[in-house]
Structures are given as structure tokens and as C-alpha cells.
Design goal:
10 helices, alpha+beta, about 350 residues, six-stranded mixed beta sheet, Creatine Amidinohydrolase, Chain A, domain 1, 2 domains, about 35% helix, binds zinc ion
Length: about 350
């Protein structure tokens, strides 16, 4: 059953849900837009769009690409909804409390005083946890394209190039080959800067015998990819190798622990234990992984605090790292589709230390 239908069927006869966030509206309707409102009732969904998006949505509807119960209207939502409220059709409306501001909630309350407003909580996000085969296909394709970009860029990476050059080459390749965009600002940090887990690329020249960490991804058909590799430009010394091997062992331990039915924190512990036992525990400050889909970071999570059960069909990253301030850092990240008996790694790109 389509997610929009599940949500509609969970509503009572005098209830409605008003979906205003771009990401939830897109997920439920299949129509990407930066504005619009999706109104759901127990039996139907109506997507209100302005002229910037209406025609595109109608074309998708004609081609059978939108959910069957969804109607598309060129109307202004607030006017249409005011009329529906006046007719006494709805007594209760669910709003996206987690994706709207306090001011927006109160403006809604003031505008439609006859309605009882209730928080929708995470009911849409919960529907996004388990990906459909089509969503997994899109993430897989996005990850494959990112890997292709990295393979094509690798021969151009050498001492004397800048971080920005490498980032631009990757993004250029991905867009030339069909990506809508990068899935987030490409992280490309060399030398001492590789100790910054989310450092931004700058006009800084890459130096010989130093690490370069690249964390990047692209969006294809709305879905994100995300991967990280750390390379050595020139030769790695003994400590650089030790840190690299520790991160790689931790990442493999995390991947091995990832399966349906485990708590998210158990996968984090599996990876973190390896890093702690090697004596680098204090230098791994972030979570082991995050869910990915329409957003680059979404539920569920491989965080030390995530007690939720990871379901089959969820897609998450496994990305431990070690960051030695002022010296260097290493992170290795793959995406995994959770299955009953383990996880399918969406990455093919090698992980053993490469000296470029
Ligand atoms: Zn990443
Ligand atoms: Zn990530």
C-alpha cells in the first residue's frame, strides 16, 4: 500500500492532516515543489499548488506517476480550506508539529478557530523508515554514480591540486552524468584539515604524504547518496596506517553488526568498541551512521543513544572515523540496505588504504 494511503486510512471521518513541509509533501505525493499544501482526509488526498508547479504535477498525474487517490488543484489552499472548515466538514486537523515553527502553528490556529489542532508527530517520518524497492533503486543508482565520479576523479588527485578543485571535479562529473545536485556540500579536506569531520573545501593546496578525506554524494530522482573515503597523497607513515586500519576494522565491524532487529546503538557499539580498544575512543565524536533517503540525514540512526529497532528495508550509512586535532583524520563510509540476515552494502569502491 502506498504511504499516502496508509496515512489517509489512519484518519477518522472528521479528521484531516495538513502537510506543509517540502519533504513530507514530496514523499507522500511524489511531486517535488518548494511551496504547496497537501490536504489528507480518510478517503482522499488533494495537493494544492501554484502555477509554478501545477502543470508539472498534472503531467505526472496524466502519466500515472502519482498516487491514485491524489487530486491536484491549482487553488490557494487557505481559501479552499476555509470554505471546507466553514461547512463543518472537519473537527480535528493534524499538523506537522516537528516541521513547522511555533509562529506557523499559532497562525493556523488563529485562521481556523473551529478546528482542534493535534500534532502529527513523526507519523510521516515513520512511513519513510522502510524504503520501497523503487526508493532503494534510486539510492543505489545515486551511490553508483557517486562512485563512478570518484573513479573518474582519482587520477586527477595529486599534490599541488586544491581541495576545491577535487570537490568541483566530483560535482561536475555527477551533474554531467544525470545528478540533480550534490546531496550536500562536498567535504574535501586535506592534510591537517582532515581532522575536521565536516570541514569545507578551500583554496588550499594538497601536500605530499598527507591524508585527503572526501565525503560526498549526489541526488538522483530526489534520493541521496553519501560516501566517504580517505586517501593518502604519497606515502603514509606508521601512525597514519595504524589509524586507517583501525577505522577500517571498525567500519567492517559496524557493517557486520547491521541487520534487521538490532537496536541502532548496538551497531554503533560494534564499531566504537574497535576504536576504543585501539586507544582512540576520545577521537571518535560522532555517531556511526544515519538513515538516508529523500534527506541526507533521516531516521533511523546508528547513534550511541538510538534505542530503536532497525527494520529490514531501512538504508543507513556506516561511517566511523578517528580525528586527531591539528594532525590528521580518517573516515570510511558506505551505505547499507538492512535485510533480515544482515545488510547489503551499496558500495563497490575499494576500502584498503590507497596511496595516490
Ligand atoms: Zn558522508
Ligand atoms: Zn553520512
Amino acid at each position: 500500500m502506498e504511504p499516502i494511503q496508509k496515512l489517509c486510512e489512519s484518519l477518522g471521518a472528521e479528521e484531516c492532516a495538513v502537510i506543509c513541509s517540502n519533504v513530507s509533501r514530496r514523499f507522500l505525493s511524489g511531486v517535488p515543489s518548494s511551496a504547496g499544501t497537501l490536504l489528507l482526509t480518510c478517503e482522499s488526498g488533494t495537493l494544492y499548488l501554484d502555477s509554478r508547479y501545477y502543470e508539472m504535477a498534472c503531467i505526472k498525474k496524466e502519466r500515472g506517476l502519482l498516487p491514485a487517490l491524489l487530486a491536484v488543484e491549482p487553488a490557494v489552499f487557505s481559501e479552499a480550506f476555509a470554505a471546507l472548515c466553514q461547512s463543518g466538514k472537519y473537527k480535528r486537523a493534524y499538523l506537522e508539529d516537528q516541521r513547522m515553527t511555533y509562529a506557523e502553528w499559532h497562525a493556523f490556529e488563529k485562521k481556523y478557530p473551529t478546528l482542534e489542532l493535534c500534532p502529527l508527530e513523526n507519523r510521516v517520518d515513520a512511513l519513510r523508515l522502510v524504503k520501497s524497492a523503487d526508493e532503494i533503486r534510486r539510492i543505489r543508482a545515486a551511490q553508483a554514480l557517486a562512485e563512478e565520479a570518484l573513479t573518474a576523479t582519482l587520477p586527477k588527485i595529486e599534490a599541488g591540486r586544491t581541495e576545491l578543485f577535487v570537490a568541483a571535479e566530483l560535482e561536475h562529473y555527477m551533474k554531467l552524468h544525470g545528478a540533480e545536485d550534490a546531496s550536500f556540500g562536498t567535504i574535501c579536506v586535506g592534510g591537517k584539515k582532515s581532522s575536521l569531520p565536516h570541514g569545507r573545501p578551500e583554496d588550499i593546496v594538497l601536500e605530499k604524504n598527507s591524508f585527503l578525506t572526501i565525503d560526498f554524494g549526489c541526488k538522483l530522482e530526489g534520493y541521496c547518496s553519501d560516501m566517504t573515503r580517505t586517501f593518502c597523497i604519497g606515502r603514509a607513515d606508521e601512525e597514519m596506517r595504524r589509524v586507517y586500519d583501525t577505522v577500517l576494522t571498525a567500519q567492517r565491524a559496524g557493517l557486520a553488526a547491521a541487520r534487521a532487529g538490532v537496536k541502532g546503538c548496538e551497531v554503533d557499539h560494534a564499531a566504537r568498541r574497535v576504536i576504543e580498544q585501539a586507544g582512540y575512543g576520545e577521537y571518535f565524536g560522532h555517531s556511526t551512521g544515519h538513515g538516508i533517503g529523500l534527506e541526507v540525514h533521516e531516521a533511523p540512526s546508528f547513534s550511541p543513544r538510538y534505542e530503536g529497532i532497525i527494520p529490514a528495508g531501512a538504508v543507513l550509512s556506516v561511517e566511523p572515523g578517528i580525528y586527531l586535532p591539528g594532525r590528521f583524520g580518517v573516515r570510511i563510509e558506505d551505505l547499507v540496505v538492512i535485510t533480515e540476515d544482515g545488510g547489503e552494502n551499496l558500495n563497490r569502491f575499494p576500502k584498503d588504504l590507497m596511496e595516490l
